[in-house]
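Summary for the funding panel

The consortium committed to producing paired sequence-structure records for every protein in the target list. Below we show the first two records in order, beginning with the earlier of the two.
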Amino acid sequence: MSRSLSRPTRGKTQPGRFRLLDPLLVGRLAGIAAPDVVDVGIGSSPRTTLELHVALGRRGRTTGLDLDPARVQALCDLDEPGLHGFVGGFDADLPPVDLVRAANLLRQYKLDAVPDALLAMGRWLRPGGLLVEGTTDRHGDRGVFRVFQRTADGLVPDALVFVSDPARSGFAPRALTPYLPRGMGWHGHPGAEVDTLFTAWKQAFERARDAGARTPAELFAGSAAGLAEIGLATTDPAGHAEGRVVVPAPPGARRGLEVARPE
């Protein structure tokens, strides 16, 4: 993969920006004693890379990858066991890992460059490994992430994850649409297409409100439960209370997106 595909990140990540996402990643890696993780784009402060490492219990190896040597050095200066820095881009020669997190990265890319960027990051994964890519707002109060898994068929969609902190930012389903991942292709049966999903979510929101939900947190959790009841989201009351909705990829989508080209 040409280094020309790699671009410096804006570096605006704030502490706690991925607080709603990271517990999900911890859960997905719970069965791995010492996970190997790559965080793409350290940012002007290494704080969110450190936060991921801490959330994982400081077990395994967490590598922050960035084109800027100064950012990598700032991460290394933390002198945290198991936390490492690597100067490089999408052509970086990394050992196989269990998870790649690429947050607030591909929004800076032209649409036609996104598939190759996803594929490049997918090549770092060992079989069964996860690529998590998406976008949040400045404070991490709203965001959307797509999860891919590396299989024998290549990089295939696993889930779409919505995060929201309704106590801080309020909640309405359509308020999450600006954070849909860049160039997202979400293929499958009509009930899993994004627009249909948001229509169903709005209906679940209205049902929750009619049932007595009033606060933004109640409306988020109630509407998330409503999506789960009709099979569009996982049943996860704890995750809903923490501000997450996980929409699994339907069986048809697991045949792969355009980026799911095996090596």
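The next record, for a separate protein in the list, is shown here:
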Amino acid sequence: MHYHLLNRSFPELRRELSAHDLANWATDRERRRYAGFSSAKRRREWLLGRLTAKSLVRTYYQSRGLPSLALDQIEIMNDSLGKPCVQLIGALELHDPDRLTVSISHRKDRALCGLAEHAPGLGFGLDLEYVEPRPRLFVETFYHHNEQAQIEQCPRASRDVCITALWSIKEAFLKAIGQGLRLDLRSIWVKLTGIPGQDWLFPILICKGIPDHGSTVRVRYVGDFIESLACCHMPEQWPVKTGQGLAANAQACAFS
């Protein structure tokens, strides 16, 4: 799986985008969606994520020698499971929806967007989390007992980083399989292979009852944020209630 990432704040986007881009950033459907948020904070987060994603999609097509797209030619709406979907308005011949997946995450006035090129049947997700202390009850409630044991073994100075990384990796994985927080987080657990730093770390993802799932994850610590990526095979066939799974093609899920 080939992927492309863009991490941006509003000040960075204002420097990079033209006045025309900022005035004409949305399709009619996107403007209605934006206006429908009752919270100013939610509108701001949504807009930041969309502008970052649209910038990445445009750059992706430009890098392939295709004409530059206006931002209002790129529509990003959510499907029934809440996953972002890209549609190109007036330039549909450029777009192969089975080969591209977009994932968006935002925290603390930053947005991380990923665009993945892949074969049909692969799921892709990412997550951005701000590193900050989390209460012990949070860990006891949502973390697998093996993860809690890892946290206790982490150096105290790195504990918040590890707690955040474990949570972020699961968030990215749940986005990749299209389940969000509908899946019991304790049915999967992450084995860190070190303390996350600026270089990508490749943890091990373990799923209850699915020993050969073939999913891959990676995580890094950049500034005050954790970035996580996940790839899984046949996301639509991951069961939520039965606890039985499908063996996956680990090579197909390898990032590049």
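Regarding this second record: The two ends are 6 Å apart (CA to CA). The CA atoms of residues 120 and 163 lie 33 Å apart.
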